[in-house]
Amino acid sequence: MTDLKKLYEAVVNGDAKAAHAITQQALAEGVDPLVLVNQHMIPAMDEVGRRFEASEYFVPELLIAARAMKSALDLIRPLLVARGDKPVGRVAIGTVKGDLHDIGKNLVASLLEGGGFEVIDLGVNVPPEKFIETVREKQANIVAMSALLTTTMPAMKTTIDALKQAGVRNQVKVLVGGAPITEKYAEEIGADGYSENAVGAVALAKKVVAA
Length: 211
Ligand code: B1M
Fold this sequence. Notes:
By secondary structure, the chain is of the alpha/beta class. It has helices at residues 5-12, 16-28, 33-53, 59-81, 103-114, 128-138, 154-165, 183-188, 198-210, and strands at residues 90-95, 118-121, 142-146, 173-177, 193-194. It folds into 2 domains: 5-82, Methionine synthase domain (Methyltransferase, Methionine Synthase (B12-binding Domains), Chain A, domain 1), CATH 1.10.1240; 90-210, Cobalamin-binding domain (Rossmann fold). The protein contains 9 helices and 5 strands, in the order ααααβαβαβαβαβα. Strands 2-1-3-4-5 form a 5-stranded parallel sheet, sandwiched between helices. Bound molecules: CO-5-methoxybenzimidazolylcobamide. CO-5-methoxybenzimidazolylcobamide (B1M) binds next to helix 3, helix 4, helix 5, strand 3 and strand 4.
Protein backbone atom coordinates (compact mmCIF):
# COMPACT_ATOMS: atom_id res chain seq x y z
CA MET A 1 0.00 0.00 0.00
CA THR A 2 1.37 3.41 -0.97
CA ASP A 3 2.43 5.66 1.89
CA LEU A 4 0.38 8.76 1.10
CA LYS A 5 2.44 10.92 3.48
CA LYS A 6 5.06 10.70 0.73
CA LEU A 7 2.68 12.47 -1.67
CA TYR A 8 2.34 15.32 0.82
CA GLU A 9 6.13 15.47 1.15
CA ALA A 10 6.67 15.33 -2.61
CA VAL A 11 4.43 18.38 -3.13
CA VAL A 12 5.94 20.32 -0.23
CA ASN A 13 9.45 19.53 -1.53
CA GLY A 14 8.50 20.27 -5.14
CA ASP A 15 9.42 16.79 -6.33
CA ALA A 16 7.22 16.49 -9.43
CA LYS A 17 8.55 13.08 -10.43
CA ALA A 18 7.79 11.56 -7.03
CA ALA A 19 4.36 13.24 -6.84
CA HIS A 20 3.47 11.77 -10.22
CA ALA A 21 4.77 8.29 -9.39
CA ILE A 22 3.09 8.09 -5.96
CA THR A 23 -0.22 9.31 -7.42
CA GLN A 24 0.00 6.76 -10.22
CA GLN A 25 0.61 3.97 -7.73
CA ALA A 26 -2.14 5.08 -5.35
CA LEU A 27 -4.68 5.31 -8.17
CA ALA A 28 -3.69 1.85 -9.36
CA GLU A 29 -4.37 0.61 -5.82
CA GLY A 30 -7.86 2.12 -6.01
CA VAL A 31 -7.41 5.16 -3.75
CA ASP A 32 -10.18 7.73 -4.38
CA PRO A 33 -8.64 10.64 -6.37
CA LEU A 34 -10.48 13.17 -4.19
CA VAL A 35 -8.84 11.68 -1.09
CA LEU A 36 -5.45 12.31 -2.70
CA VAL A 37 -6.39 15.92 -3.50
CA ASN A 38 -8.26 16.91 -0.33
CA GLN A 39 -6.33 14.98 2.31
CA HIS A 40 -2.78 15.15 0.98
CA MET A 41 -2.19 17.62 -1.86
CA ILE A 42 -4.19 20.64 -0.63
CA PRO A 43 -2.73 20.35 2.91
CA ALA A 44 0.71 20.22 1.24
CA MET A 45 0.03 23.47 -0.64
CA ASP A 46 -1.18 25.01 2.63
CA GLU A 47 2.16 24.05 4.21
CA VAL A 48 3.97 25.60 1.23
CA GLY A 49 1.95 28.79 1.80
CA ARG A 50 2.82 28.73 5.51
CA ARG A 51 6.54 28.39 4.72
CA PHE A 52 6.26 31.25 2.21
CA GLU A 53 4.67 33.48 4.85
CA ALA A 54 7.42 32.51 7.31
CA SER A 55 10.06 33.41 4.68
CA GLU A 56 11.30 29.84 4.67
CA TYR A 57 10.15 29.51 1.04
CA PHE A 58 10.28 32.08 -1.74
CA VAL A 59 8.60 32.34 -5.16
CA PRO A 60 10.82 29.69 -6.83
CA GLU A 61 9.77 27.15 -4.15
CA LEU A 62 6.10 28.09 -4.68
CA LEU A 63 6.57 27.46 -8.38
CA ILE A 64 8.20 24.07 -8.02
CA ALA A 65 5.59 22.97 -5.46
CA ALA A 66 2.87 24.07 -7.91
CA ARG A 67 4.61 22.07 -10.64
CA ALA A 68 4.63 18.97 -8.41
CA MET A 69 0.94 19.43 -7.62
CA LYS A 70 0.17 19.80 -11.32
CA SER A 71 2.10 16.67 -12.25
CA ALA A 72 -0.13 14.69 -9.87
CA LEU A 73 -3.28 16.51 -10.99
CA ASP A 74 -2.53 15.61 -14.62
CA LEU A 75 -3.32 12.01 -13.63
CA ILE A 76 -6.28 12.89 -11.45
CA ARG A 77 -8.14 15.40 -13.63
CA PRO A 78 -9.30 12.95 -16.33
CA LEU A 79 -10.71 10.70 -13.61
CA LEU A 80 -12.68 13.55 -12.06
CA VAL A 81 -14.03 14.61 -15.45
CA ALA A 82 -15.03 11.03 -16.28
CA ARG A 83 -17.43 10.99 -13.32
CA GLY A 84 -20.01 13.10 -15.17
CA ASP A 85 -22.77 12.21 -17.60
CA LYS A 86 -25.48 14.59 -18.86
CA PRO A 87 -24.79 18.32 -19.47
CA VAL A 88 -26.58 20.41 -16.86
CA GLY A 89 -25.35 23.89 -17.71
CA ARG A 90 -22.56 25.92 -19.29
CA VAL A 91 -19.96 27.56 -17.06
CA ALA A 92 -17.46 30.26 -17.98
CA ILE A 93 -14.71 29.96 -15.38
CA GLY A 94 -11.56 32.00 -14.87
CA THR A 95 -9.12 33.45 -12.39
CA VAL A 96 -9.77 37.18 -12.20
CA LYS A 97 -7.68 39.97 -13.69
CA GLY A 98 -4.26 40.40 -12.08
CA ASP A 99 -4.24 36.90 -10.58
CA LEU A 100 -2.17 34.02 -11.95
CA HIS A 101 -3.12 31.25 -9.49
CA ASP A 102 -4.88 28.46 -11.35
CA ILE A 103 -4.54 25.20 -9.42
CA GLY A 104 -7.78 25.64 -7.45
CA LYS A 105 -9.62 27.03 -10.46
CA ASN A 106 -8.51 24.03 -12.54
CA LEU A 107 -9.79 21.66 -9.87
CA VAL A 108 -13.13 23.42 -9.76
CA ALA A 109 -13.31 23.28 -13.58
CA SER A 110 -12.54 19.54 -13.63
CA LEU A 111 -15.11 18.73 -10.96
CA LEU A 112 -17.74 20.85 -12.71
CA GLU A 113 -17.07 18.88 -15.89
CA GLY A 114 -17.28 15.71 -13.84
CA GLY A 115 -20.58 17.00 -12.46
CA GLY A 116 -22.01 17.22 -15.96
CA PHE A 117 -21.38 20.89 -16.79
CA GLU A 118 -19.92 22.12 -20.04
CA VAL A 119 -16.95 24.22 -18.94
CA ILE A 120 -15.35 27.07 -20.84
CA ASP A 121 -12.05 27.69 -19.10
CA LEU A 122 -10.87 31.25 -19.72
CA GLY A 123 -7.60 30.72 -17.88
CA VAL A 124 -5.94 33.22 -15.58
CA ASN A 125 -5.75 37.01 -15.49
CA VAL A 126 -9.19 37.19 -17.09
CA PRO A 127 -10.50 40.73 -17.67
CA PRO A 128 -14.24 41.48 -17.21
CA GLU A 129 -14.67 41.96 -20.98
CA LYS A 130 -13.66 38.35 -21.57
CA PHE A 131 -16.36 37.06 -19.18
CA ILE A 132 -18.93 39.32 -20.89
CA GLU A 133 -17.90 38.16 -24.36
CA THR A 134 -18.22 34.52 -23.29
CA VAL A 135 -21.66 35.04 -21.75
CA ARG A 136 -22.81 36.74 -24.95
CA GLU A 137 -21.20 34.48 -27.52
CA LYS A 138 -21.33 31.09 -25.82
CA GLN A 139 -24.50 31.62 -23.79
CA ALA A 140 -22.85 30.57 -20.55
CA ASN A 141 -25.42 30.46 -17.76
CA ILE A 142 -22.87 30.50 -14.92
CA VAL A 143 -19.82 32.71 -14.44
CA ALA A 144 -17.40 31.23 -11.90
CA MET A 145 -14.54 33.38 -10.67
CA SER A 146 -11.51 32.44 -8.64
CA ALA A 147 -9.17 34.81 -6.75
CA LEU A 148 -6.27 33.89 -4.46
CA LEU A 149 -4.93 37.31 -3.61
CA THR A 150 -6.52 39.90 -1.36
CA THR A 151 -5.39 42.45 -3.96
CA THR A 152 -7.33 40.75 -6.76
CA MET A 153 -10.57 40.06 -4.86
CA PRO A 154 -11.97 43.46 -5.92
CA ALA A 155 -11.73 42.34 -9.56
CA MET A 156 -14.70 40.08 -8.79
CA LYS A 157 -16.87 43.09 -7.97
CA THR A 158 -15.51 44.95 -11.02
CA THR A 159 -16.53 41.97 -13.17
CA ILE A 160 -20.02 41.79 -11.65
CA ASP A 161 -20.46 45.53 -12.21
CA ALA A 162 -19.25 45.14 -15.80
CA LEU A 163 -21.73 42.30 -16.39
CA LYS A 164 -24.49 44.64 -15.15
CA GLN A 165 -23.26 47.50 -17.31
CA ALA A 166 -23.20 45.23 -20.35
CA GLY A 167 -26.82 44.21 -19.65
CA VAL A 168 -26.05 40.49 -19.21
CA ARG A 169 -26.03 40.17 -15.42
CA ASN A 170 -29.57 38.74 -15.33
CA GLN A 171 -28.63 36.02 -17.87
CA VAL A 172 -26.10 34.40 -15.54
CA LYS A 173 -25.54 33.21 -12.01
CA VAL A 174 -22.23 34.42 -10.62
CA LEU A 175 -20.32 32.10 -8.29
CA VAL A 176 -17.09 32.98 -6.54
CA GLY A 177 -14.37 31.19 -4.59
CA GLY A 178 -10.70 31.11 -3.67
CA ALA A 179 -8.77 31.13 -0.41
CA PRO A 180 -9.42 34.77 0.69
CA ILE A 181 -13.09 34.81 -0.35
CA THR A 182 -15.88 34.44 2.20
CA GLU A 183 -19.64 34.04 2.08
CA LYS A 184 -19.96 37.57 3.46
CA TYR A 185 -17.72 39.01 0.76
CA ALA A 186 -19.69 37.17 -1.92
CA GLU A 187 -22.90 38.73 -0.61
CA GLU A 188 -21.34 42.19 -0.40
CA ILE A 189 -20.27 42.18 -4.04
CA GLY A 190 -23.61 40.82 -5.27
CA ALA A 191 -22.53 37.31 -6.27
CA ASP A 192 -25.15 34.55 -6.34
CA GLY A 193 -23.06 32.08 -4.38
CA TYR A 194 -19.78 31.17 -2.75
CA SER A 195 -18.10 27.87 -2.23
CA GLU A 196 -15.12 27.16 -0.04
CA ASN A 197 -13.94 24.21 -2.14
CA ALA A 198 -14.25 22.45 -5.48
CA VAL A 199 -16.70 19.78 -4.35
CA GLY A 200 -18.99 22.43 -2.87
CA ALA A 201 -18.75 24.46 -6.10
CA VAL A 202 -20.40 21.64 -8.04
CA ALA A 203 -23.27 21.34 -5.56
CA LEU A 204 -23.68 25.10 -5.63
CA ALA A 205 -23.67 25.25 -9.43
CA LYS A 206 -26.33 22.53 -9.57
CA LYS A 207 -28.41 24.39 -7.00
CA VAL A 208 -28.34 27.73 -8.83
CA VAL A 209 -29.08 26.09 -12.18
CA ALA A 210 -32.08 24.27 -10.70
CA ALA A 211 -33.34 27.51 -9.15
CO1 B1M B 1 0.92 32.64 -4.49
N1 B1M B 1 0.15 33.46 -2.89
N2 B1M B 1 1.64 34.37 -5.03
N3 B1M B 1 1.76 31.67 -5.95
N4 B1M B 1 0.44 31.09 -3.61
C1 B1M B 1 -0.74 32.57 -2.04
C2 B1M B 1 -2.21 32.68 -2.50
C3 B1M B 1 -0.49 33.18 -0.60
C4 B1M B 1 -1.68 32.99 0.37
C5 B1M B 1 0.82 32.60 0.00
C6 B1M B 1 1.08 33.10 1.40
O1 B1M B 1 1.57 34.19 1.58
N5 B1M B 1 0.73 32.32 2.40
C7 B1M B 1 -0.20 34.69 -0.94
C8 B1M B 1 -1.42 35.61 -0.97
C9 B1M B 1 -1.48 36.55 0.21
C10 B1M B 1 -2.65 37.45 0.13
O2 B1M B 1 -3.12 37.90 -0.88
N6 B1M B 1 -3.15 37.75 1.31
C11 B1M B 1 0.45 34.57 -2.31
C12 B1M B 1 1.28 35.58 -2.89
C13 B1M B 1 1.59 36.78 -2.02
C14 B1M B 1 1.77 35.48 -4.21
C15 B1M B 1 2.62 36.52 -4.99
C16 B1M B 1 2.20 37.98 -4.81
C17 B1M B 1 4.09 36.26 -4.55
C18 B1M B 1 5.10 37.24 -5.14
O3 B1M B 1 5.29 37.28 -6.32
N7 B1M B 1 5.70 37.98 -4.24
C19 B1M B 1 2.46 36.04 -6.46
C20 B1M B 1 1.25 36.68 -7.17
C21 B1M B 1 1.19 36.34 -8.64
C22 B1M B 1 -0.15 36.75 -9.27
O4 B1M B 1 -1.08 36.01 -9.19
N8 B1M B 1 -0.21 37.94 -9.83
C23 B1M B 1 2.21 34.58 -6.24
C24 B1M B 1 2.58 33.60 -7.15
C25 B1M B 1 2.38 32.24 -6.97
C26 B1M B 1 2.91 31.20 -7.98
C27 B1M B 1 2.71 31.62 -9.42
C28 B1M B 1 4.39 31.03 -7.71
C29 B1M B 1 2.12 29.90 -7.52
C30 B1M B 1 0.84 29.65 -8.33
C31 B1M B 1 1.02 28.63 -9.43
C32 B1M B 1 -0.30 28.32 -10.10
O5 B1M B 1 -1.39 28.46 -9.56
N9 B1M B 1 -0.16 27.89 -11.32
C33 B1M B 1 1.66 30.30 -6.10
C34 B1M B 1 1.18 29.37 -5.14
C35 B1M B 1 1.35 27.90 -5.51
C36 B1M B 1 0.56 29.75 -3.92
C37 B1M B 1 0.06 28.88 -2.75
C38 B1M B 1 1.28 28.35 -1.99
C39 B1M B 1 -0.82 27.69 -3.11
C40 B1M B 1 -2.07 28.04 -3.93
C41 B1M B 1 -2.73 26.75 -4.36
O6 B1M B 1 -2.55 26.31 -5.48
N10 B1M B 1 -3.44 26.09 -3.40
C42 B1M B 1 -0.80 29.92 -1.91
C43 B1M B 1 -0.89 29.58 -0.43
C44 B1M B 1 -2.17 28.79 -0.12
O7 B1M B 1 -3.20 28.97 -0.77
N11 B1M B 1 -2.12 27.97 0.87
C45 B1M B 1 -0.30 31.20 -2.40
C46 B1M B 1 -4.08 24.77 -3.65
C47 B1M B 1 -5.45 24.99 -4.34
C48 B1M B 1 -6.10 23.65 -4.60
O8 B1M B 1 -6.26 25.72 -3.43
O9 B1M B 1 -6.44 27.72 -4.99
O10 B1M B 1 -7.33 27.83 -2.60
P1 B1M B 1 -7.06 27.04 -3.83
O11 B1M B 1 -8.47 26.46 -4.38
C49 B1M B 1 -9.40 25.79 -3.56
C50 B1M B 1 -10.46 26.73 -2.94
O12 B1M B 1 -9.99 28.02 -2.67
C51 B1M B 1 -11.62 26.67 -3.88
O13 B1M B 1 -11.55 25.34 -4.40
C52 B1M B 1 -10.19 24.93 -4.53
C53 B1M B 1 -10.10 23.44 -4.27
O14 B1M B 1 -10.73 23.06 -3.09
N12 B1M B 1 -11.69 27.58 -5.02
C54 B1M B 1 -12.90 27.87 -5.60
C55 B1M B 1 -10.74 28.19 -5.74
N13 B1M B 1 -11.27 28.88 -6.74
C56 B1M B 1 -12.61 28.72 -6.70
C57 B1M B 1 -13.63 29.21 -7.52
C58 B1M B 1 -14.94 28.84 -7.21
C59 B1M B 1 -15.22 28.03 -6.12
C60 B1M B 1 -14.21 27.52 -5.29
O15 B1M B 1 -15.89 29.34 -8.05
C61 B1M B 1 -17.19 29.08 -7.81
